[in-house]
Amino acid sequence: MEKVTSRQLKTVDKLYSSEDQLEGARAFSEKRPPVWKGK
Amino acid sequence: MTTSIKTTISGSILEVTLDRPKANAIDLKTSKIMGEVFAKFRDDPNLRVAILTSSGDKFFCAGWDLKAAADGEAVDGDYGVGGFGGIQELPNLNKPIIAAVNGIACGGGLELAMSADIIIASEDATFALPEILSGTVADAASIKLPKRIPHHIAMELLFTGRWFDVNEAYKWGLINEIVPKKDLLSRARKLAETLASGPPLVYAAIKEIVREAENQDFQKQWKR
What we know:
The complex is a heterodimer of chains A (about 40) and B (about 220). Chain A is mainly α. Chain A has one domain (about 1-35). Chain A contains three helices and no strands. Chain A has helices spanning about 1-5, 10-15, 20-30. Chain B has helices spanning about 30-45, 65-70, 110-115, 140-150, 150-160, 165-170, 185-195, 200-224, and strands at about 5-10, 15-20, 50-55, 60, 95-100, 105, 120, 125-130, 165, 175-180. Helix content of chain B is about 40%, strand content about 20%. In chain B, strands 1-2-3-5-7-10 form a six-stranded mixed beta sheet, sandwiched between helices. A four-stranded mixed beta sheet of chain B has the order 4-6-8-9. In chain B, helix 4 (about 140-150) packs antiparallel against helix 5. Chain B has about 220 residues and is of the alpha/beta class. The interface of A and B includes residues 5, 7 and 23 of A.
């Protein structure tokens, strides 16, 4: 678990600093479908 | 103690009630308080079993507080001594914990329930891991779910974020029992009493062995 939460997995680290993650949260609060860019 | 977490003690049983209307979502502060509550439970020799439940009719726990997130709390912020929800990463927690799921358990709320040893749920409880729908990952569930229910089902639930009901959860062995809503707490208390009458040292040994086995497995996969 710690390996995941401390961002030691590359994919997780990338996700947590990605545009898509922000987009997901924004889309959720704006109640619209998210647009995924893969970055 | 703030009012978002209520605790009552009956004999050697601790009852922890999450009370954060309206969805019982957990922000960093609530998570830290829960960690402290469960650390005290762990360290108090007079307490043997804990029940985790929520107040309100609709939600057990909606997981991570997206409102707090929108106000700037980081998804990988400091959740306190026990990690998200106070249980899942609390070291040396060697006493049985029962989750009494009284409604919707989604995202971190389902992960919270999964950090208990035994899960009983009311008939109207529903579950989902909707993290993917808002562009993030259900991290604890990605570790645990494929080990607890059939792999392909777990992957589907993680990939789609879809809802499933108590009957499906029971079918996959994710929950121990389905209980009529009005009987949920009394059933949890009865179960807790049964466990509280058992040998604490054996519970401790079981929990440490299980934890150790899970960790070794994770380490092994990590080193591959």
